[in-house]
Known about the structure:
This protein is an alpha/beta fold. Helix content is 40%, strand content 20%. It has two domains: 5-141, HUPs (Rossmann fold, 3-Layer(aba) Sandwich); 152-273, HUPs (Rossmann fold), CATH 3.40.50.620.
Amino acid sequence: MSYAVLMAALDLDLPTHGVLTASATLAETFGARRIGVAAGECALSPYFAEGPIADEFLTRTQAELCLQLKEVEEQFRKSCTGQCGNVEWRAAERLPSGFMIAAARAADLVVVGRSNPSINLMRGPDVGNLVMQAGRPVLVVPPDAGSFALERVLIAWKDTREARRAISDAMPILRKVKDVYVLAIHEADASDAATLAGTDDVVTWLARHGVKSVAIARPDYGNVGKSIEETAAEVGADIVVAGAFGHSRFTEWLLGGVTRHLLRGPKTCVLFSH
């Protein structure tokens, strides 16, 4: 298994450097085709009056949007030096999330920048929706990251369908990196030995696929997402691999959850599968 096609999903309001750097490194590593994708939509405020003023405003905002899409395309193509025959650009004047979810059918892995709570969904994708609906693993990276490394991976393990899927989807990366850690978080009052007992099958399965890994246990400090983040920093992980939205997204957003924390919090890249 490898990644033959990578999709760089670009937000018009975020720096493109992180996504372009990560997707370029992965494309070179796997000899993969790169698809750059961006979209945006103009809409008039309901408070605008009809007539010439509204028409002028719409014309101006559409021109600005076309210019920004062109600028992002130029940044993408500039990052593809040496890959000119193996790249593709897709852009549209429409809502980004639906456009990117549809485009993901052409890719093995989607790379997207980590967004913030104030994201404008008319100019960039809802990353949570992309993770849930793309049907592809989604690598979320810091948008302003200056580099991207493939040295160490931390697998956030919990015995769920989403976590099993995430490990399988990350297999091409796991086979390339030097160090792989399988992290199990303590349940209440559980010992390290009891917590690690459930990871034996995971470590053995990885070994049978040519991936040497080490299982580690850490306590839950009241926030599993924070525990994962701190462990990633401790082992120097370049990427965290995690299953996404084991609960409904509404429950995650209402009560807080691991996926929500990893989508918004750490500076480490996170590969999600749902």
